[in-house]
Amino acid sequence: MIERFPLSMADDLFHAYQLSEADLDELNQVGHLVLPGLLTDSARRRLTTALAHVSRQSGPKGYKPGAYAAEYNDYLESLIGHSQMLGLAREVLGEEIRFDHCVALNRPPGNEGLGWHSHEYGDTNPSLGFIRIFFYVNGFASDDGALKAVPGSHLFRDRTIRASTDADLSEGWMSGKVHPVTGEPLSIETLDVPPGSVVLMWTHAAHAVTPRRDGSGTRWCVVFAYRNPGEPSEARWISEAFERKRIVGAEGLMTLY
Ligand SMILES: O=C(O)CCC(=O)C(=O)O
Ligand SMILES: [Fe+2]
After folding, report:
1. Number of domains making up the chain
2. What is the share, in percent, of the chain residues with pLDDT greater than 70?
3. Using a 6 Å cutoff on CB, does residue 209 contact ligand 1?
4. CATH code, domain carrying 167
């Protein structure tokens, strides 16, 4: 059956939503915020097709299409300047933003997940924000390709967090540390999100991913990252040609500064 939507509906990325002050406070205190089921059904369908398309492509040697996903797929490219995407990014970061990267994070059955890490940006300048906007197109259960995080860890703005297991992180970087605002000992949180969820995360948060089960389908996921301009960004994977490309809605957002 061919589904028909008025154009505006078919192009909607998110259902109607409102980020409250409490949501923004939670993001700033915890380091991440789950917006359950925010993606529209049509966006979920188009994202799944786009992410499968990216996963089938191969780039030049040493160049992974997944790391430059928006350069390999027109729909992903169009989302960089989508009004709802930019509205969300600006609610968190304020008006002055730049696009940083778009990476496909598909995890097929048996994928081993990812160890604990944090990312850099403006490490000594807390006025510079860098937000990762994860689209968990088909969601995940806590024991199946799940995102884990340490609430409050982003407040340390420590880009060097690395550990291969929860125990190593607890006994290593987390040991003796308390949440700078609540004073509670740091702890690990394993998320569990329904299909279509969007997760916002400050880039300095400690995070990791649990393995994808053998019997599960691919976890379809993509991250779009935006930041306040002001410093170089190591995660900014954009080819020179892509930086110069005219992308509707993204005018002025593609440069480093
Ligand atoms: O695959 C994920 O859920 C998270 C990947 C990740 O750590 C990242 O994109 O920064
Ligand atoms: Fe990460």
Report:
1. 1
2. 96
3. yes
4. 2.60.120.620
